[in-house]
Amino acid sequence: MPWEFTEANMKKVNEILSHYPSNYKQSGIIPMLDLAQQQHGGWVPVAAMNAIAKIVEVAPIRVYEVATFYTMFNRTKVGKYHLLVCGTTPCMIRGSREIEEALLEHLGVKRNEVTSDGLFSVGEMECMGCCVNAPMIAVADYSKGSEGYTYNYYEDLTPKRVVEIVEMLKRGETPPRGTQHPERKNCGPAGGNTTLHADMRRQW
Amino acid sequence: MAFFARAIRHSSPYLRSRAPPPPAVAASCRWISPTAAAGSPEAGAAVAPADPETPPPREPVGGARVELPSNPEDALEVFVDGHAVRIPKGFTVLQACEVAGVDIPRFCYHSRLSIAGNCRMCLVEVEKSPKPVASCAMPALPGMKIKTNTPVAKKAREGVMEFLLMNHPLDCPICDQGGECDLQDQSMAFGADRGRFTEMKRSVVDKNLGPLVKTVMTRCIQCTRCVRFASEVAGVQDLGMLGRGSGEEIGTYVEKLMTSELSGNVIDICPVGALTSKPFAFKARNWELKGTETIDVTDAVGSNIRVDSRGPEVMRIVPRLNEDINEEWISDKTRFCYDGLKRQRLNDPMIRGTDGRFKAVTWRDALAVVAEVLQQVKPEEITGVAGKLSDAESMMALKDFVNKMGSDKVLCEGNGPSPPADLRSNYLMNTSIAGLEKADVFLLVGTQPRVEAAMVNARIRKTVRATQAKVAYIGPPTDFNYDHEHLGTGPQTLVEIAEGRHPFCSTLQSAKNPVIIAGAGLFDREDQDALFSTIETVAKKFNVVRPDWNGLNVLLLHAAQAAALDLGLVANPTESIKSTKFLYLMGADDVDLDKVPDDAFVVYQGHHGDKAVYRANVILPSSAFSEKEGTYENTEGCTQWTIPAVPTVGDARDDWKILRALSEVAGAQLPYDSLSGVRDRISMVAPNLVHVDEREPCTISSEVKPPVKQQVSSTPFKTVVENFYMTDAITRASKIMAQCSATLLKK
């Protein structure tokens, strides 16, 4: 089955290629795979990899190697909202397993399965760098193609809150991204600062 | 056995350290350095305090010779285990250690492939480096102090080995690599005596790479040698490293066979038993095999091979290193044709009876029948044809015999109606195979090197990869595994180049070392004289032949061709065969048998019941290349010998001996009774054929040729080799080659 970048995305492809010298076109494989994944509803088919190989003028196997190496590239179908639960130690200690259980139970799927309405799938990711707000999930939103693609973090989750987020997404709403703790602001402590109240620059 | 030898070699530093310390005089012998001052033992000892346990000096690994650059500034000195060695700039630490005689264990490093540095087995300690260094990827720097035998280096290797063995199955007893396995040898020499891994080992799905390479991917240690070989040497970008972490595996991702004519070489370079030979699977153990160092005759390259046999049976064929011809690779046809040596063989002399069936007879009867017929035909009706696989001795005997009977109609198949036998430079690869690496522009005329001579093609590909040499091709559309420009399909394009009208002329003009390779398929064309004179015009125009560079080449197709032309087996095949009453086919299966007159008496002397047997009246069984001593000249004019590896089949005899016996019965006895006698006779006709393992270039230039009046025809060039895997009697009898043709040639 032939696969092609859309016209709008072809412009982006050319933009990507312009970053690299013409004899190092293969440097563009990763951003192109990402673009292809957004365009193709969250996963990269072999046909898309072949198309990219053609654009960057390498053998297809060189693109397969990259696509199989990075876990962020899905090679099977995912839901329109791909929910990635962080499973690394800080999140695990703060209850990421319960988060995942709650998600899987609520959606009625197993890990890496897509719900029957095609809306959701749940996967696991390693550390996404939000350990201070653990546990967290990342939601890759492929519902609006590569133009409206978003990739948001939802942090400080509880099993109850994560289900609420899923419900909001199902209704087409956009839950506020970032920390879900009512008293926290970004990565700051709950209830406002406890130290460093003043502007420290004055004193020094 | 090699396994034990290696294990002992690797442990030798330990054994030697117990020996009394060597006298100081002995130490001075090892300095490779040309200058005494730079490499004096005192200098080495002054910087690296001599350890009383320091092992005695060693010779470079494998007798390797290092050519130091003439400019002393391009050489540098490093210290390996306290001994100073001088190496050229750009050497890696591993190479420096090899020069110093220290064999560093390695899996992913291969001298003919790019450096990957991913197995980590070659870790050594380098002074002032905080961590052990992967020696294969680290350039040696002046004054570097490399320590290969310290606790740090030993522990590093042991650790790496433990990791490598973690997921490696313990199936050595059922593994075909057992006994010649790098992992087995090195784990004995460098590994710990126990592992700490208690979890489950991973398993990997086997891949289907075609009928030649068997995969047991669970054994793979991810050295990526096969991936690099496929993309760099073979030029098929099919294999890759997929996945990550413990899920990492070698594969093609999409189901795909490895369609390369060099695919068998991944069996040799795989350091473990992940890629092994499918036809050889579970057939024999390597220590049961007797290796015979001989050469290959399935094409005109004369690749150096080792025939491994057990008793009377050829078990496998592996390459032998020859930098000038095949480096360390061989083509799949060379490697896997050996099962053809066991099938369709002619065992006994046979005579076709009146009912059209063959009856086995004794040699005496068969020779008597042939001699009787010989007496009845006129001398000029006798024709002798040598086959593609004939050695020089038998062709000499055939020519002498036919001449003695009063005929001059003796030829070798594949050399066309009027072979250019006058000057050796007209039919040889004058640049030499290794010399192709210096070329910067290739013009291939009517030759498809990938199927005609896979090893020459590998050399061209190597050159193209290394120096971005340009390749232009005139001939029918065909497969290339490197970038090339298809200029045209017929001689017209060649004429255009000769007349300077073609755009490619500018490339040729600017080339420093241009190479023209004409295919031996051109010999069969009616207009071959005109073609070769056009090629010579091109050569003259673009300075292809100079005193310091001869870029005018002919790429031959068969092992016998060059020697046949040297010996003067040059009769016109169409005329000779049309008028013959007595046809002597010496392994010649590709002559046009329809042209043979119905009343002609055909003698087939050969080792395989191939095409020509159907027309033969008498069959005389002879021995194949693996069973006889024979002289062959390859396409670049290098003379080499085959060595008998196995006994002959049944009642077969060497080709020249049969002719000698027949000559006596026919009353025209040939004047030699021994191989040395035949070779003496050969040395009178073509002295270059007795200088074995030497390439004798042609000294006379082609200037002295008479002018050609013939016109170039417009018929496009033809594909000469339709099926790479089946070109001669041996490969046509091979089951493996038949499988390859069926699965790999499918378009």
UniProtKB/TrEMBL annotation, chain A:
Chain intervals for the UniProt region annotation (Disordered)? 172-204
What's one GO BP annotation on this UniProt entry?
A: mitochondrial electron transport, NADH to ubiquinone
- What GO CC annotations are associated with the protein? mitochondrion; respiratory chain complex I
UniProt-listed SUPFAM superfamilies: Thioredoxin-like
Where along the chain is composition biased (Basic and acidic residues)?
172-186
Which sites bind [2Fe-2S] cluster? 86, 91, 127, 131
- PROSITE patterns the UniProt entry points to: COMPLEX1_24K
The record's GO molecular-function terms, alphabetically, read: 2 iron, 2 sulfur cluster binding; metal ion binding; NADH dehydrogenase activity
Entry's cofactor comment: Binds 1 [2Fe-2S] cluster.
* Classification via PANTHER family: NADH DEHYDROGENASE [UBIQUINONE] FLAVOPROTEIN 2, MITOCHONDRIAL (PTHR10371:SF3), NADH DEHYDROGENASE UBIQUINONE FLAVOPROTEIN 2, MITOCHONDRIAL (PTHR10371)
NCBIfam families attached to this UniProt entry = nuoE_fam
Family statement: Belongs to the complex I 24 kDa subunit family.
Q: What is this protein called?
A: Uncharacterized protein
Automatic annotation (TrEMBL), chain B:
The name this protein goes by in its record = NADH dehydrogenase [ubiquinone] iron-sulfur protein 1, mitochondrial
Region annotated Disordered, chain positions: 42-65
Organism's domain of life? Eukaryota
- Pfam families referenced in this protein's UniProt entry, alphabetically: Fer2_4 (PF13510), Fer4_NDSU1 (PF22151), Fer4_Nqo3 (PF22117), Molybdopterin (PF00384), NADH-G_4Fe-4S_3 (PF10588), NADH_dhqG_C (PF09326)
Provide the 4Fe-4S His(Cys)3-ligated-type domain boundaries. 152-191
Q: Which keywords does this Swiss-Prot/TrEMBL entry list? A: 4Fe-4S, Iron, Iron-sulfur, Metal-binding, NAD, Translocase
Q: Which GO terms describe its molecular function?
A: 4 iron, 4 sulfur cluster binding; metal ion binding; NADH dehydrogenase (ubiquinone) activity; oxidoreductase activity, acting on NAD(P)H
SMART domains linked: NADH-G_4Fe-4S_3
Which processes are annotated in GO (biological process)? ATP synthesis coupled electron transport
Where is the sequence biased in composition, kind Low complexity? 42-51
Q: Does the keyword Secreted apply?
A: no
What PROSITE patterns does the entry give?
Answer: 2FE2S_FER_2, 4FE4S_HC3, 4FE4S_MOW_BIS_MGD, COMPLEX1_75K_1, COMPLEX1_75K_2, COMPLEX1_75K_3, PROKAR_LIPOPROTEIN
State if Iron is listed as a keyword: yes
Give an example GO cellular component term for this record: membrane
Q: Where is the 4Fe-4S Mo/W bis-MGD-type domain?
A: 289-345
Its cofactor is: [4Fe-4S] cluster; [2Fe-2S] cluster
Domain (2Fe-2S ferredoxin-type): residue spans on this chain: 74-152
Give the UniProt family note: Belongs to the complex I 75 kDa subunit family.
Q: Which InterPro entries match?
A: 2Fe-2S_ferredoxin-like_sf, 2Fe-2S_ferredoxin-type, Mopterin_OxRdtase, Mopterin_OxRdtase_4Fe-4S_dom, NADH_UbQ_OxRdtase_75kDa_su_CS, NADH_UbQ_OxRdtase_ferredoxin, NADH_UbQ_OxRdtase_Gsu, NADH_UbQ_OxRdtase_Gsu_4Fe4S-bd
